[in-house]
């Protein structure tokens, strides 16, 4: 419709047409115009493409609550916003409240996930346009809307699109990057393993951008070690390793990891008394034991990667706690991971062998040194009880001689930061 007359006819057909007629016009438009530049769109609409964009945006704003043809409408809008040399269209879309409409779409329960995905992709285009556009999204409570969409959506595609958008909002957005960071921390408390995994991945990037870590991340991060999802556990351990570079959280994280090796069992609630006590105990203990095994694995990896961290862990009485975890006959993986972690400390610091042998006894110690991975299969109940009741305590004098020249990290004041504004 390169002529003005054709444009008038097209707009008249749009204005007079119903939803079905307009949807057909949009399908033709998207099919023909996807990937065109701003100048090409202007040529197609006789230098008046803004007239069609205004009508299209108005239709979205007035009818998005119904969800009819919403995905197609948003794809048509993206033709304009994603076109190169299209800053004019982007400005016009923002001026008529386009961003607010997209955020409202994310908040509506009745709107389909695939339509929300299209809205997130449009927000991504806007975010990538520059800092002031990122700030505009954040100023209008965009981070909260995106975080809640990621947490509550049942579509993996929607969650992944929201995750990419949050990462985009964190980059080059100094004014609101901490808001994005706190939103990601809040996501760790949701119940979706996919959302937790994506949040953990984003947090690894966000820490490098913010260049600090908030102490409020410690508890939800350690809780991720309870997850039955191995990918969530992996990302949690990798994030813990990254956080060792931040003194604001390192001492508390190390202390927390060691404490998880010796979990405190909670008493069953009153209403559970009539149920099978063995079943109650097994169900309640499983996440704690999974967390115990994951903590032992994380401790081993931290010790392998840094002699300083190995020293810090020894000051937190890690030897006693690992021996305790080795005696957990209720969870084989806890025993296996604790054995491997303890073997790492003994291998790194041979002088500790005497302390470990004294705690285990000669027979069990020989089995431990020869094949720590299979030790749990050869351990009897008496040996397990001995490990659980061990009194191993590596004195400061021994540690000083053992690690001469490697001073312990400062485990005192961690400082304070602002409160997290998000809760899910």
List keywords for this structure.
single chain, 424 residues, mainly alpha, 0% strand, elongated
Question: Order of SSEs, N→C?
Answer: HHHHHHHHHHHHHHHHHHHHHHHHH
**Secondary-structure content class:** mainly alpha
Mean pLDDT, to the nearest integer, reads 90
Shape: elongated
Catalogue the unreliable spans: 405-421
How many H/I helical runs?
25
Portion in helices? 55-70%
| Rg over C-alpha atoms, rounded to the nearest angstrom | 29 Å
How does this structure look, described?
The chain is mainly alpha-helical. The chain contains 25 helices and no strands. Helix 12 runs antiparallel to helix 13 and helix 15 crosses helix 17 (277-305). The chain is elongated, with a radius of gyration of 29 Å. Mean pLDDT is 90; it is low at 405-421.
């Amino acid at each position: 419709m390169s002529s003005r007359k054709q444009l008038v006819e097209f707009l008249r057909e749009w204005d007079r047409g119903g939803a079905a007629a307009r949807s057909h016009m949009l399908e033709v438009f998207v099919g023909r115009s996807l990937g065109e530049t701003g100048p090409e769109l202007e040529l197609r609409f006789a230098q008046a493409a803004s007239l069609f964009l205004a009508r299209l945006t108005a239709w979205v704003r007035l009818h998005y609550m119904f969800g009819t043809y919403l995905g197609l409408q948003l794809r048509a809008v993206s033709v304009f916003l994603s076109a190169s040399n299209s800053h004019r269209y982007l400005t016009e879309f923002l001026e008529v409240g386009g961003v607010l409409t997209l955020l409202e779409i994310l908040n509506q329960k009745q709107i389909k996930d695939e339509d929300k995905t299209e809205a997130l992709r449009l927000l991504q285009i806007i975010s990538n346009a520059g800092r002031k556009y990122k700030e505009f999204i954040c100023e209008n409570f965009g981070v909260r809307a995106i975080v809640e969409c990621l947490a509550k959506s049942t579509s993996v595609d929607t969650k992944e699109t929201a995750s990419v958008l949050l990462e985009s909002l964190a980059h080059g957005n100094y004014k609101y990057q901490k808001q994005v960071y706190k939103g990601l921390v809040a996501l760790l408390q949701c119940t979706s393993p996919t959302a937790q995994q994506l949040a953990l991945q984003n947090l690894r990037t966000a820490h490098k951008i913010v260049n600090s870590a908030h102490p409020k991340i410690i508890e939800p991060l350690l809780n991720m070690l309870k997850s039955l999802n191995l990918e969530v556990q992996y990302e949690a351990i990798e994030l813990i390793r990254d956080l060792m570079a931040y003194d604001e959280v390192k001492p508390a994280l190390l202390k927390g990891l060691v404490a998880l090796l010796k979990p405190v069992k909670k008493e069953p609630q009153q209403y559970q008394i009539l149920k099978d006590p063995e079943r109650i105990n097994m169900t309640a203990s499983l996440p704690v034991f999974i967390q115990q095994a994951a903590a032992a694995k994380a401790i081993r990896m931290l010790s392998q990667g840094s002699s300083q961290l190995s020293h810090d862990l020894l000051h937190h009485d890690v030897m006693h706690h690992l021996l305790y975890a080795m005696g957990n006959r209720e969870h084989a993986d806890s025993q296996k991971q604790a054995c491997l972690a303890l073997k790492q400390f003994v291998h790194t610091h041979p002088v500790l062998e005497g302390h470990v042998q004294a705690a285990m006894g000669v027979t069990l110690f020989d089995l431990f040194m020869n094949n720590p991975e299979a030790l749990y299969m050869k351990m009897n109940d008496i040996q397990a009880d001995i490990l659980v009741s061990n009194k191993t305590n590596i004195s400061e004098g021994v540690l000083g001689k053992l690690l001469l020249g490697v001073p312990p990290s400062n485990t005192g004041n961690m400082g304070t930061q602002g409160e997290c504004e998000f809760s899910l």
